[in-house]
Amino acid sequence: MDVLVFGAGALGSLVGGLLAREHAVTLVGRDPHVGRIREDGLRISGEFDAHVGPEAASEVDGLSADLALVTVKAYDTAAAAAALSGEGVDIDLVCSLQNGLTEGELRAALGDRVLAGTATYGAELVDPGRVRCTGVGRVHVGELDGGESDRAERVAAAFREAGLDCEADPGMPRRRWEKLAVNAGINAVSALARVRNGALAEPPAADVAERATREAARVARAEGVDLTGGDARAALRTVVGETAGNRSSMFQDVRAERRTEVDAINGAVVERGRKHGLETPTNRTLAELLGAWETARGLRPA
Ligand code: KPL
Fold it and tell me: Pfam family of this protein, just one (predicted)?
């Protein structure tokens, strides 16, 4: 399968690099990372040990692929959708592996070629051309509105051929909300407390994370998704355990003084909750604190 990975950050590089062991992969990202990959390949360490040679580019102009994986930050989704629907770009299927509920935005530009996806692998860029896997998670792909899907099965089989743990899931609406609820619990709390995910197994961080996750599950139920607070909490604990040694993507963003995905995670929970008349005070506080941090550094768009 020809795979284009749009967004060669930590997760995109890890997933793309692992897929490159079996498939023809092009990573689209920024220099100096993509330049180093072109010169010397991509090295994967941690839970995997591989040195692979995917193509690497800083633009998608004229590229074609069976599958495009979208791994850019949630706030760059519109730019990704515009690039992938641009002239001369020929993509059969698109699958988001992003945090947040970004697929709607992709679908608006790319139509029903868009599949939903979730990934719980832990990944960190250590240097240009080097990515470390800090937690072996799982990838799920499926139809945005749920249901059995041959094309999702094909994508999952291609992932498995390359040694990734991946399943097609007919229940993606619930899975996306479960992932959002887990990210609502882990990302902002770990970023503000400056701790690795494993620290969220112990109080007091565990209590804050659990409150944020339960609030998100409540909003999910208001949206018609069958996700109990208990199930969401169990998923939170599983991911905290599986990625204990990982710095969450938001903790990595804060360490690098980059804009975070707090609006797309805790902010999205607050906004969707508001539409249903639900208060989500823990998510609101987390979003406000990270928002204040971003504002103080001029990282938020005006
Ligand atoms: O999705 C993640 C993230 O960091 O954004 C998890 C699964 C929480 C891994 O850290």
Answer: ApbA
The DSSP letter of residue 75 is G
For tokens 């928002």, the residue is 291
> Do 155 and 184 reside in the same domain of the chain?
no
Would you say how long the chain is, in residues?
A: 302
Q: Report the CATH number at residue 198.
A: 1.10.1040.10
Please tell me the distance between residue 188's alpha carbon and the centre of ligand 1 in angstroms: 10
Cα–Cα dist 83/77, whole Å: 10
Contact 41, 77 (CB under 8 A): no
ipTM of the complex: 0.97
261 phi, psi to nearest 5 deg: -95, 25
Which residues approach ligand 1 with their CB closer than 6 A?
Answer: 99, 120, 122, 183, 186-187, 197, 239, 243, 246, 248-249
Please tell me the pTM assigned to this model: 0.94
- Active site positions, annotated: 179
Write out the two tokens for 85. 């629907």
Tens of pLDDT along 135-155? 888 999 999 999 999 999 999
